[in-house]
Each structure stands twice: as C-alpha cells, then as structure tokens.
C-alpha cells in the first residue's frame, strides 16, 4: 500500500544542491576561506602570543569592574585562567576563545537585524520562525558536512557551524523584546511624529535591550557549546583536546580540557550578564 | 474660530468595513453589525467642532469609543471614513510625511498611563518631541526646562520616571506635550490613573495652566465629575456615537435622552447647579410706594415670616420681618424705613449650591440672589435640599 511511490531521492537532491551552491558561490566561499580564515587564524595566534599573565590581569580587572567592583568573579577568573595555563592548555584556550568570539559576533550581526525585521513584519515572522526551528533542531553534525564542502577544514567551517547553531536565540529574543514594548510607549513615540528608525533606535531598542542581551548571552553560550563539534572538522582549541581524548579513551585529559571550556563559559556568561544589568 | 473640525468621522474595526458602514446607514445597531459582519464599530459618524482655546471633553463609559475617537484625531488609528480638519487641513487625507509634521508641531498627546520612557530622565523625556524634530541640544534642553517649570517639576529634571509619584509622572507627561508648544493638546484619560485627591489637584492645575496658555484641549474621560469640572463643552458618547454636545449646564439641565439623563443622575449636582437654577421669584414690597399695611397684607397672603424690600428699580434695600411690620402698623407709621433690616444673606447668580448650603443654614430669612444690587430671586432652604437630593422640582423652579 505504502510503496506506490518509489523512494524519493531527497538525499541525492541535497547532494546536487550543495554541489551547485559550491560551484555557483565559489567566488564568495573561496575568499572567505582564504582571507577570513587567515584573519581568524592570525588573531588566535596573536592572542596566544600575549603573555598569559597580562591576559589574566586584564580579565581580572575587567570582571572586577563589570561585576560592580566585587572580587568574587575576578578571583574565579584568576584561579581558573591560571589553572588552564598550568595544564598547558593556554594556546588551545585562545583558539577556542577566538572561535567563540567570531561565531558570536557574526551571529549577533545577522541575528539582531533579522529579529528586528521579524518584529516589524508578519511575513518575515512567518518565514523566519520555521527556519530558526530547523537551525536549532537539525543535529549539528549534519551541517558540518556542507560546511566542509564550502569552506574546507579549519576554523572557518567551525565558525560557520557555530553561527548556524547559535544565531536563533538572538533572533528570537530581539523579536520578542521589540514586540513586548508596551503599546502605550509605541503610541507615544508615534504621537510625537517619530519616523520608523527614530522609533526603533530611540524607543524600541532601548526598551528591548535587556531581552536582546539575554538572547546575546544565549547565543554566546551556544557558540561555546559547539567547540567540540567544530573540532571534528579541524577547528583547533580545547574542543580538539576533548575530541582527541574521546578517540583515545583518555578520561583524565578529556576532563581537564572539558573543565577549561567550563571555566571559559562561566567567565563569558557572568561578564555578559553583568553587562546586561548595567 | 474652530481649530478642529470633525465631520462624519467613523472607524470600523474588522475586514468588511464597507458592508458595516452601509449597515450603519440603514440604522443597524452596533451589536447587530458585529453579528452580521464580524466588524466592531469603534466610532460612528462623529461630527463636532472645537474652538480655539476651548477645553472640549469627550466623555463616555469604557467601550463607548472615546479613546478610539481621540486616536482618529492624530491618526494613531486610521479612520474608515470621514474628515478631521485641523487648521483647515484634512488630516484624514494627508500623506505620511505631512502627518508626521503635524504630529510634531501641532498636536501633542498625554497618555493615561503616562507613556514615559523609563530609560530616560525627566528632562530627556520632556525633550523627546523636540529631539524627534531635530532641534539642537541646548535649545531643546531650555524649552524642556521651561515646560517642566510650568508644571512645577523644575527641580526633578535628572530623576528617572520610576523615582516619581504617579501625579508627578503625569506632570512630566504634560510637560513633554507642552514642550513642543502644540496648538492642540490631546489628553487621553490623563488623570484617570491617579488617586482622587491628586486627580483633583491636577484638574485645578490644568485649569490654571489653561488660563495662562489658552491651548485647545481635547480631554477624554469616563468621569462625569471631571468632565463637568474642566470642560467648556462636553461631548457624551455611547456605543461609538456622540449622543449630546453641550456646556456642562446644558447637559445637566437638559439631557438629550434617557442615556444622558441616567448618566447625569449620578452626578454630585451641588458642583454645577448654581443659585440661578434654584432661586424663586421673590415677593417684595417697594419702599417708595408701600407702607406697613401693604407689607403686612403680602406677608399674610403668602404665609411668610418676612419680606424683601426693594426700590422702584428693584435695587435690594433690605427686609422686614412680620412682627416689626405688625408693630409699625399699630403705631400707624407711614413707611418701612424705621423697621428695615439689612443683615440678609446675599449671593450672586453664579454661586454654586454647596456655598449657598453653608450660608442658608444660619440665615434668618431666605437667601437673596442679587446681580448689580438688583434682587433677582430668593432661595429657600427647601430648594437647596431638594436640589442636593436631586429632587424633581429643581429645574422647574429655575
């Protein structure tokens, strides 16, 4: 009964589509792979050449000020970063940090405008929502494959995969934040004769700031959670250490590298949350 | 000169607006139209004019369409049909760019829940309208400060809205609207969120400000007391239609229909009824013509204990009481000069009832209502009480 239609060759279609995209947009992908990839690599290298003690001091000072001149977070940062250094994972930490920063920045640069657009247009909302669902629920490994096809092996496909996975929250939260601005404030803005962009920048975005920042925080955390998966396509860093440990069944080094990711996650999370409060 | 001229203004919410409008023409009611078309009639064929410097109150219960109507005036809601002329220009038809300019320069709005931006200071909130117009920082700060001084918030400019009380927040709302120096001020239930005492203060203050500024104000409220207090004219709304437009007095004394009448029944009449409404035609004697004999006769005829004395041109001279008149009659005196008393209570035509109520309590004789020295009427205790009790005879006695 169910066999009256032969197997739909969806997989083949996707293969063809990916090949087509690769052929058509090679002129974009190649420079991204070469130039952007080179830029990311050299940033990571540059970061790992800064004396660790200097980085630790800077991070400690920064956490001290963003947390409202409290010592807790700074002490954690000093101890945590020293521990990573002590475990000889410093360079890996810098690579992971670079990956997360680039992935997050790109996610935010794409995500906030997309969220704004979504909040302004029913159509945009209807189209973007299922795409976001797709991005978040499709297993991350699946888009590692086209990432490699488009960008080869290295940090760039890792960033690409992270961006796909990490963008949805900032889009959703931006949309939500703007839609939640009270009708009376929107009316007030209109009644004083604001243009669309005046209303957006002077009323809606400031009102939605906290919600958007919560989305940014989520995005950064998701980007961080991708580092192990990104290492499967050759992104260096702490994720790579975890992956190696997994493949060799070495509990100890796996745990240590994993702990390094946790330390980085906590510092980034607390800093971005505190920025939101200010 | 009328600043705002609203003609046949309608708003129908829903999809089949044309159908709903034609049903309205055929005289269908709001509920029937909702059933037939699924459309809600917000405002139904409203027409009125607002004069320059007038406080025009639009009042009605919730759901009567008053908030929709005020939003049609500055097109926060687009009208389905009809015209809104502001300064001779039909806002219902102008383009977006022009509408924005009108909103920036001619009309400002004050909101029920204040509509202040919580991330801006009082000064920055007040500057908002000027900032939108692209006025430079120094000038807008000066204008905003002026407006804040006007509402008595000159020393709070660096506070944030949530640091202020409700009354003060609404002053900021008012200052923000005034900073633009608009011709028309739209106030949507501006004082409804405030508690009663503060509300009263704000009403007084608005009236004071209005005396200085002479803006054209359109004020929305669901509170008839408030409407009567501040309105030069009042438009009463029900189910999207304007039921009656008139001065507070006209509405109270001549309610257009049962709906208005029922509304008015709840009002504290003492606030709006004045001496002229409850006074009676006085019995008098003419001091130049009449002596004790005529006076006594009239007193007996009417069953009074005293009678007012006037001269030929109705100038109030005083009063005489029955006992004195009787004594004078026995002494065969010719005129009333010797027994004339002048300690009578007097009020003007415009004196509100509650004032009369206080005076009449201790008065030995009915209160005399005078205008330029002439006796216009008298008020007896019963009439005041009847009016306060919303008795039936009030208007007949006027």
UniProtKB/TrEMBL annotation, chain A:
Q: Which GO biological process categories is it annotated with?
A: amino acid transport; choline transport; glycine betaine transport
Its predominant location is membrane
**CDD domains reported in the protein's UniProt record:** TM_PBP2
Which InterPro entries would you find in this protein's record? MetI-like, MetI-like_sf
Tell me the GO molecular function terms: amine transmembrane transporter activity; carnitine transmembrane transporter activity
Q: Which PROSITE patterns match?
A: ABC_TM1 (PS50928)
Signal peptide: which range, if any? none
Membrane-spanning ranges: 46-66, 93-119, 140-166, 212-233, 254-272
Instruction: Spell out the subcellular localization from the entry.
Output: Cell membrane
Q: Which GO terms describe its cellular component?
A: ATP-binding cassette (ABC) transporter complex
Topology term for the membrane: Multi-pass membrane protein
The segment(s) forming the ABC transmembrane type-1 domain are: 93-272
Does the keyword Cell membrane belong to this entry? yes
Keyword tags: Amino-acid transport, Cell membrane, Membrane, Transmembrane, Transmembrane helix, Transport
**Per the similarity annotation, which family is this?**
Belongs to the binding-protein-dependent transport system permease family. CysTW subfamily.
Protein name per the record: Glycine betaine/proline transport system permease protein/glycine betaine/proline transport system substrate-binding protein
Q: Which organism is it from?
A: Gracilibacillus kekensis
Q: What is the lineage of its organism?
A: Bacteria, Bacillati, Bacillota, Bacilli, Bacillales
UniProtKB/TrEMBL annotation, chain B:
User: What broad class describes the main subcellular location of this protein?
Assistant: membrane
Q: Name one GO molecular function term.
A: ATP hydrolysis activity
Bilayer topology = Peripheral membrane protein
Reported EC number(s) for this entry are: 7.6.2.9
Which Pfam families does the UniProt entry name for this protein?
ABC_tran (PF00005), CBS (PF00571)
Keyword Cell inner membrane on entry: yes
Q: Which GO terms describe its biological process?
A: amino acid transport; glycine betaine transport; response to osmotic stress
Tell me the SMART domains matching this sequence.
AAA (SM00382), CBS (SM00116)
User: SUPFAM superfamilies in the record, alphabetically?
Assistant: CBS-domain pair, P-loop containing nucleoside triphosphate hydrolases
- What superkingdom heads the lineage? Bacteria
Q: Boundaries of each CBS domain copy?
A: 278-336
Catalyzed reactions per annotation: a quaternary ammonium(out) + ATP + H2O = a quaternary ammonium(in) + ADP + phosphate + H(+)
Could you describe the subunit structure of this protein?
A: The complex is probably composed of two ATP-binding proteins, two transmembrane proteins and a solute-binding protein.
Instruction: Tell me which family the UniProt entry assigns to this protein.
Output: Belongs to the ABC transporter superfamily.
Q: Output this protein's name.
A: Quaternary amine transport ATP-binding protein
Species source reads Gracilibacillus kekensis
């Amino acid at each position: 009964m169910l066999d009256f239609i032969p197997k739909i060759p969806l997989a083949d279609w996707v293969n063809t589509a990916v090949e087509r995209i690769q052929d058509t947009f090679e002129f974009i992908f190649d420079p991204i792979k070469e130039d952007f990839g080179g830029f990311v690599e050299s940033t990571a290298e540059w970061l790992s050449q800064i004396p660790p003690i200097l980085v630790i001091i800077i991070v400690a000072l920064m956490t001290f000020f963003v947390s409202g001149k409290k010592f807790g977070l700074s002490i954690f940062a000093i101890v945590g970063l020293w521990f990573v250094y002590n475990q000889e994972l410093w360079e890996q930490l810098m690579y992971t940090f670079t990956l997360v920063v680039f992935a997050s920045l790109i996610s935010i640069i794409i995500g906030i405008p997309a969220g704004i657009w979504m909040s302004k247009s029913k159509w945009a909302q209807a189209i973007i929502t299922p795409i976001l669902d797709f991005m978040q629920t499709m297993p991350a490994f699946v888009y590692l494959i086209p990432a490699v096809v488009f960008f080869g092996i290295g940090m760039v496909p890792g960033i690409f995969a992270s961006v796909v996975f990490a963008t949805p929250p900032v889009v959703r939260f931006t949309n939500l934040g703007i839609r939640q601005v009270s009708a009376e404030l929107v009316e007030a803005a209109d009644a004083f004769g604001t243009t669309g962009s005046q209303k957006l920048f002077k009323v809606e975005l400031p009102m939605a700031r906290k919600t958007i920042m919560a989305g940014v925080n989520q995005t950064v955390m998701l980007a961080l959670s991708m580092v192990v998966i990104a290492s499967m396509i050759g992104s260096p860093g702490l994720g790579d250490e975890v992956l190696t440990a997994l493949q060799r069944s070495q509990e100890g080094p796996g745990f240590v590298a994993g702990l390094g990711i946790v330390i980085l996650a906590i510092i980034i999370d607390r800093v971005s949350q505190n920025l939101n409060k200010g | 000169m009328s600043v705002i001229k609203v003609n046949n203004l309608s708003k129908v919410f829903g999809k089949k607006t044309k159908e709903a409008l034609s049903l309205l023409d055929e005289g269908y009611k709001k509920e029937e139209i909702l059933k037939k078309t699924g459309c809600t009639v917000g405002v139904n064929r409203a027409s009125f004019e607002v004069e320059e410097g007038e406080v025009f109150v639009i009042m009605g219960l919730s759901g009567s369409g008053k908030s929709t109507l005020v939003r049609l005036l500055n097109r926060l809601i687009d009208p389905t049909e009809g015209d809104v002329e502001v300064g001779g220009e039909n806002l219902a038809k102008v383009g977006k760019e022009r509408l924005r300019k009108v909103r920036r320069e001619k009309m400002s709005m004050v909101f029920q829940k204040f509509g202040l931006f919580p991330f801006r200071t009082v000064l920055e909130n007040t500057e908002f309208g000027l900032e939108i117009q692209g006025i430079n920082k120094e000038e807008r700060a000066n204008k905003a400060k002026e407006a804040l001084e006007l509402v008595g918030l000159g020393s709070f400019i660096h506070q944030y809205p949530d640091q202020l009380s409700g009354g003060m927040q609404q002053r900021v709302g008012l200052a923000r609207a005034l900073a633009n120096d608009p011709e028309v001020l739209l106030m949507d239930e501006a004082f409804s969120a405030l508690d009663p005492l503060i509300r009263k203060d704000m009403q007084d203050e608005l009236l004071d400000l209005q005396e200085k500024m002479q803006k054209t104000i359109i004020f929305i409220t669901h509170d008839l007391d408030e409407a009567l207090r501040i309105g030069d004219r009042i438009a009463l709304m029900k189910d999207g239609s304007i039921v009656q437009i008139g001065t507070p007095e006209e509405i109270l004394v001549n309610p257009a229909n049962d709906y208005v009448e029922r509304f008015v029944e709840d009002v504290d009449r003492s606030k709006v009824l004045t001496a002229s409404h409850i006074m009676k035609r006085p019995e008098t004697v003419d001091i130049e013509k009449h002596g004790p004999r005529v006076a006594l006769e009239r007193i007996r005829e009417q069953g009074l204990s005293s009678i007012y004395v006037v001269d030929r041109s109705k100038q109030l001279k005083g009063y005489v009481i029955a006992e004195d008149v009787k004594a004078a009659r026995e002494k065969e005196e010719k005129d009333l000069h010797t027994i004339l008393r002048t300690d009578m209570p007097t009020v003007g035509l415009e004196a509100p009832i509650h004032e009369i109520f206080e005076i009449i309590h201790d008065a030995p004789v009915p209160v005399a209502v005078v205008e330029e020295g002439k006796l216009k009427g008298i008020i007896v205790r019963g009439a005041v009480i009847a009016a306060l009790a919303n008795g039936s005879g009030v208007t007949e006695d006027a």
